[in-house]
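for ur thesis appendix - Cytochrome C assembly protein. copy paste whatever u need, i formatted it the way the template wanted (i think)
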Amino acid sequence: MITSNWIYDAIIYTYALSLLFYFSDFVDINRRAKRMGTGLLIFVWVMQTVFLIIRMINHRDVPIFTTFEFMFLFSWILVTASLVISRFFHIEFIVFFVNLIGFALLIVNMLNDPTSSTALLEWEMMGNILSLHIFLAACGFAALTVSGIYAGMYIFLHHRLKSRKWSAAVRRLPSLERMQRSSLTASVIGVPLFLLSLSVAVVSVMLGERHELLLDIKVWFTIFSLGLYSFYFYKRHRGKMTGLHIAWLNLICYGTMLLNYALNSLSGFHRWMGV
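the 3d part is after this line
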């Protein structure tokens, strides 16, 4: 658990999963993923509404418009607005980034509750936030590794087929189309996880009042790496590059992520985290 309130934890986990599905639809028009994301987002809205009602009932003696209530209400409004946009205007780009802001607000807000008698100590809460950052980054890196492996297999198979060099290993490989699709799917999973991890990292820096760490090379190189993956998605969506060039671009993106990981030893942020 991140906090001492299971409803709040459930909201955060469900919200993160919803963002994952929305990103999948945003990148490659996946209606099934959009329906899953919308369903989870509706569930988030219901839990937030229930949380607010319980909050007002249990804390009638506390001013309702503390910083905690204001930020939580703001997040609830963002979720409501994104559902309206998704239903009537179908602008997935706006929906995803509005909810990314809403998710970040919930993370920031965890240290603002003045009424909870069972709240975790601030240092322990910070530790839990940093653990969430590490977990999201590890999952994202694993997904991008799978994507990179598929891209490498695509290049290998493409070369063997073009040179007409058949072998038992070649025959056991999946088709080029399947590998390209699997590589994209793994990237679609990994990139939003890294984006959420970066959001949590920035939030932890702000909560720890170490704003100078926002200028850390690790933070900016992570942004650059995610921007390169965004370029990969754009080129993949345009469909004007060959599958081989797309696979090479994917490997270049993964290479930047490997370099990004190597920068941990030079990162002031990770020394501050103790990682």
